[in-house]
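Curious: explain these tokens?
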Amino acid sequence: MRTLCASTLIGEFFVIGFAGLVAMKSDDLTNTTVWTVCGIGMLLAVLLCGMITRPGGIQLGWALQIALVLSGFVVPMMFILGLVFGALWWASVHYGRKIDEVKARWAAAQETSEAPAGG
């Protein structure tokens, strides 16, 4: 699960940065505001890569997904990209857990087949 989720988060890191470039063209926002908000989002995306397996990591990832969708009020294309990354996040978590379960079952089967018989 960690690899899939981290891949999604790294993609989001770049999308947040590109959204910041687009948001800079807004007359309503200062560059300081844009890059403070984008910087926090980008930092959170990178930090979450290491926190995925810790308690609350997945929930923080969901919070980032919601923030990405809500950023569509500033950069309208982010409504679509936020939904796309939300779907990718769901798939990363869902299928990542399934992969982890299969790996655990496979490792347990290998461990029992390698155990010495009758001893």
Remarks:
- The longest helix spans residues 77-114.
- The CA atoms of residues 42 and 108 lie 38 Å apart.
- The mean pLDDT is 92.
